[in-house]
């Protein structure tokens, strides 16, 4: 029987446990990095529910490729690179172009503790990331219990709708409805923040 995964374990330890076959360790990594990944993808994709889907796809890709991670860079750097590529591929598949002004996203593909990232990751960008993360956390905390449970089982643990229905002892249609409503509620909380960010960018380009 595997040891209990402790949330405070460093990323490299958790990665090693995932590579040894412990899925629970990857769940901890997802919870630790999901909001920063969502904020990163949000720079490419404005729609919140679409961001959720792309973020989930990015984590699925990371899980499938975890054996290729050798620790040459931090896990966060590796995960961010996957997130950026997943967002770009998602846009390309729909014949949509990434934002023109995304030097910060290019920099995000470089080691997160590198001098280049420190030079370009301005206090304003860091503040925006923190605001998005805090807004998501607050929005999730305010959800009704059944919405929050369905949302977290889907977005954090990556369960299928059928698995969630079994876990919550309710029809699949109810699960879909709860997750949809949860996403809508979170989107409502985030919309003013994202719209304000878009307006700021437009003014800076004018």
TrEMBL record:
It comes from the Bacteria. Residues 29-97 form the RNA polymerase sigma-70 region domain. This is RNA polymerase sigma factor RpoE. GO terms for molecular function: DNA binding; sigma factor activity. Pfam families: Sigma70_r2 (PF04542), Sigma70_r4_2 (PF08281). GO terms for biological process: DNA-templated transcription initiation. Keywords: DNA-binding, Sigma factor, Transcription, Transcription regulation. PANTHER family: ECF RNA POLYMERASE SIGMA-E FACTOR, RNA POLYMERASE ECF-TYPE SIGMA FACTO. Belongs to the sigma-70 factor family. ECF subfamily. InterPro entries: RNA_pol_sigma-70-like (IPR039425), RNA_pol_sigma-70_dom (IPR014284), RNA_pol_sigma70_r2 (IPR007627), RNA_pol_sigma70_r4_t2 (IPR013249), RNA_pol_sigma70_RpoE (IPR014286), RNA_pol_sigma_r2 (IPR013325), RNA_pol_sigma_r3/r4-like (IPR013324), WH-like_DNA-bd_sf (IPR036388). Residues 134-185 form the RNA polymerase sigma factor 70 region 4 type domain.
């Amino acid at each position: 029987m595997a040891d209990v995964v402790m949330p405070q374990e460093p990323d490299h330890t958790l990665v090693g446990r995932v590579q040894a076959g412990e899925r629970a360790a990857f769940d901890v990594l997802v919870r630790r990095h999901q909001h920063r990944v969502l904020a990163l993808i949000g720079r490419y994709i404005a729609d919140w529910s679409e961001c959720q889907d792309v973020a989930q796809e990015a984590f699925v890709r990371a899980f499938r490729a975890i054996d290729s991670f050798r620790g040459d860079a931090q896990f966060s750097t590796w995960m961010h690179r996957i997130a950026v590529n997943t967002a770009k591929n998602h846009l390309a598949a729909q014949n949509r172009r990434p934002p023109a002004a995304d030097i910060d996203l290019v920099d995000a593909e470089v080691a997160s503790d590198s001098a280049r990232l420190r030079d370009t990751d301005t206090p304003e960008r860091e503040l925006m990331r923190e605001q998005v993360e805090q807004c998501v956390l607050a929005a999730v905390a305010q959800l009704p219990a059944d919405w929050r449970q369905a949302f977290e089982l889907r977005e954090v643990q990556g369960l299928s709708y059928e698995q969630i229905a079994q876990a919550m002892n309710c029809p699949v249609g109810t699960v879909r409805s709860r997750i949809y409503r949860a996403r809508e509620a979170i989107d409502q909380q985030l919309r003013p923040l994202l719209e304000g960010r878009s307006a700021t960018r437009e003014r800076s380009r004018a």
